[in-house]
Amino acid sequence: MLEVKDLTKTFGSLTAVDDLNFTIKPGEIMGLIGQNGAGKTTTFRIILNLLTPDKGHVHWNERYLTTKTFNKIGYLPEERGLYPKVSVENQLLYFAQLRGKKKSEIKPLIDHWLEKFEVKGKKTDKVKTLSKGNQQKVQLISTLIHQPELIILDEPFSGLDPVNAELLEDGIREAQANGASIIFSSHNMNNVEELCNSLIMLKNGRPVLNGTVKDIRQQFGRTKLFLESELTPEELRQFPGVQRVEKTNDGIDVAYLTETEDGKAIFDAATKNGYIPTFSQQPPTLEEIFKRLAGEKNE
């Protein structure tokens, strides 16, 4: 289990991480979200002992991380770092050896991992001959092939097309099923919603959201109303609490409400003649919450 307690890190007058607390149990995935510069990468670097916190501690299974512990970590940095003139196979062997593995342990696994992530190229190919997407998959394999117990992924989905993103999701879920504790950052809220048991949102280094995706969404109320009825958008805008109305491509009206209770009067009016095809009140999406909390000029 990874435990981050009271973590604070400053750089001069800048507080990069401010009193951060969380735990990730075996088999759990936590998302770390926030605008650029919010403190996500700094948090990862403190966990990896690349930076020393001003206050607080990081424990793995109730102990400080040691050299032996780091052999159980898989880390994918945001700045990818492969050696372009080295073959795929030697690259994977090298990174595994840095994590305390022997060549004889890793070499028989390479073909399986290249096939799992559908890498286009041979293991004898130099990395520079691969496409950018395939290079990224090789780096991901180097993060996972030694079967780490703690996995840290900094923007792992960046630049991946939907097919390769799904391969990555499958790899993360497989590691989760094998009992790994996983933390990743992403600007893609769909990935966070689909994968994470919990999440933390940082703003200026300080956590402003902390909990499960479901609980966080419910905190904001069921203020997003999907409606398919005889009511026109102009009529919807006249109801108390309706902030704005939009129409989806398939003709469903989406009304944004001030409070959950504002939907009751709309329901009564929409159903006065009986059945309607659609009436659904939902919490805002994680992306909408992110934009709401990120600031005036939202990402």
UniProtKB/TrEMBL annotation:
- Keywords of the record: ATP-binding, Nucleotide-binding, Transport
Sorted alphabetically, which InterPro entries does this protein's record hold? Answer: AAA+_ATPase, ABC_transporter-like_ATP-bd, ABC_transporter-like_CS, ABC_transporter_ATP-binding, DrrA1/2-like_C, P-loop_NTPase
One GO molecular function term of this record is: ATP hydrolysis activity
List each copy of the ABC transporter domain by range: 2-229
Keyword Membrane tagged: no
Q: Please report which protein family the annotation says this sequence is part of.
A: Belongs to the ABC transporter superfamily.
Protein name as annotated: ABC-2 type transport system ATP-binding protein
The beginning of the lineage is: Bacteria, Bacillati, Bacillota, Bacilli, Lactobacillales
